């Protein structure tokens, strides 16, 4: 479902933006990335309009674009590429992604409440004041992310990965953490209250809590609570 289309400029390693036919449908033609496309304003507007006019979006590449004050509620994305995109003030519910790429994206003041994300990658992304409350984030890749004052509360994080992640003032209360990986992550003021932390893996030996080792957290009550789901 997900295919990479490199920029036509020789030696450019960026992904080419999606192309459209005269009827506004996605095509598989070769194209340029946002840095090299002849008319970036036109293609950005075309992509914005395509997203707004479709509920189900398959194979879209919008790598490097900025999305601000746009409602993604009830949108379904399959095999789409949002590599190095910036999302600002996005407030959406029931946002669905399947096998999508958000690597090295930036999320500022966003909320994706009651969203559903499966087999998607957010590796290396930065989250600031971003909410994934009451969401299903199943088998997603959050490796190397930086999350500041963000929330994953009441979410299902089954088999997702936060390896090498940096979590600051971020909450994961009442979450399903079964098989969730936190290897070599840095956590400051992270709350796991009522989450099943004994099912998570914090080091290569297994769950730190199950072996009696405390997870370094501060300023939250019962942040080391191993009960829950």
Can you describe what's shown?
The protein is mainly β and 229 residues long. It contains one helix and 16 strands. The two termini are 34 Å apart.
Give a short overview.
The protein has 229 residues and is mainly beta. 6% of the residues lie in helices and 20% in strands. Strands 4-6-9-12-14-15-16 form a seven-stranded parallel beta sheet, with no helix packed on it. A five-stranded parallel beta sheet has the order 3-5-8-11-13, with no helix packed on it.
Helix and strand layout, with pairings?
Elements: E1 19-20, E2 26-27, H1 40-53, E3 56-58, E4 66-68, E5 76-78, E6 86-88, E7 91-93, E8 96-98, E9 106-108, E10 111-113, E11 116-118, E12 126-128, E13 136-138, E14 146-148, E15 166-168, E16 186-188
Parallel strand pairs: 3-5, 4-6, 5-8, 6-9, 7-10, 8-11, 9-12, 11-13, 12-14, 14-15, 15-16
Antiparallel strand pairs: 1-2
């Amino acid at each position: 479902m997900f295919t990479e289309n490199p920029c036509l400029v020789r030696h450019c390693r960026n992904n080419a933006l999606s192309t459209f036919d005269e009827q506004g449908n996605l095509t598989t033609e070769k194209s340029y990335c946002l840095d090299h496309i002849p008319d970036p304003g036109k293609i950005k507007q075309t992509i914005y309009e395509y997203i707004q006019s479709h509920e189900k979006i398959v194979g879209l590449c919008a790598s490097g674009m900025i999305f601000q004050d746009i409602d993604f509620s009830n949108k379904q994305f399959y095999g789409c590429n949002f590599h190095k995109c910036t999302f600002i003030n996005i407030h959406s519910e029931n946002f669905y992604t399947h096998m999508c790429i958000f690597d090295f994206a930036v999320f500022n003041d966003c909320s994706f409440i009651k969203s559903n994300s499966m087999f998607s990658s957010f590796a290396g992304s930065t989250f600031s004041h971003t909410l994934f409350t009451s969401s299903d984030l199943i088998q997603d890749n959050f490796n190397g992310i930086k999350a500041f004052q963000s929330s994953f509360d009441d979410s299902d994080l089954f088999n997702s990965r936060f390896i090498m992640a940096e979590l600051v003032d971020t909450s994961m209360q009442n979450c399903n953490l079964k098989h969730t990986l936190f290897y070599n992550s840095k956590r400051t003021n992270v709350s796991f209250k009522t989450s099943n932390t004994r099912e998570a893996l914090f080091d290569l030996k297994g769950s730190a809590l199950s072996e009696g080792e405390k997870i370094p957290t501060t300023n939250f009550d019962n942040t080391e609570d191993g009960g829950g789901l």
